[in-house]
């Protein structure tokens, strides 16, 4: 619970800092300090944008990686047809696990669902991503 509250509070604090940045102009800070506040604001904006779109970036990377395999003539699962259907199943599995993460995040006890988090994070998809990435790397060499 505490970690989720901290993450939500951290995101809200970052949004608040970016939205209310221009209130600094009413302060008595010097030009040198204001310059570094601007640098920090640019960093906060970039960080918010990247964190907001991180799930989409992972999905795009995963989809591109899966779609590159048949185009490169790499058949991991026996035949090209089987590889296509297994890759499609991996895409649906990823989306299902993503939905599962959202549903589990709505609960009050994240420690009670430790197994589901661990399976999603460490066992199913990263192993397939590693296998596909290594296949592409070996094929490129």
UniProtKB/TrEMBL annotation:
Assigned EC number: 2.4.1.16
Membrane topology (UniProt): Multi-pass membrane protein
Chief place where the protein resides: membrane
Domain of life: Eukaryota
GO biological process, one term: cell wall organization
UniProt key word Nucleotide-binding: no
Glycosyltransferase as UniProt keyword: yes
Coiled coil stretches, renumbered: none
Alphabetized InterPro entries for the sequence: Chitin_synth (IPR004835)
Cellular compartments annotated: Cell membrane
Catalytically driven reaction(s): [(1->4)-N-acetyl-beta-D-glucosaminyl](n) + UDP-N-acetyl-alpha-D-glucosamine = [(1->4)-N-acetyl-beta-D-glucosaminyl](n+1) + UDP + H(+)
Assigned GO CC terms: cell septum; plasma membrane
Key words of the record: Cell membrane, Cell wall biogenesis/degradation, Glycosyltransferase, Membrane, Transferase, Transmembrane, Transmembrane helix
Enzyme class: transferase
Listed transmembrane segments: 6-25, 45-69
Molecular function terms from GO: chitin synthase activity
Family membership: Belongs to the chitin synthase family. Class III subfamily.
Name of this protein: chitin synthase
Lineage of source species: Eukaryota, Fungi, Dikarya, Basidiomycota, Agaricomycotina
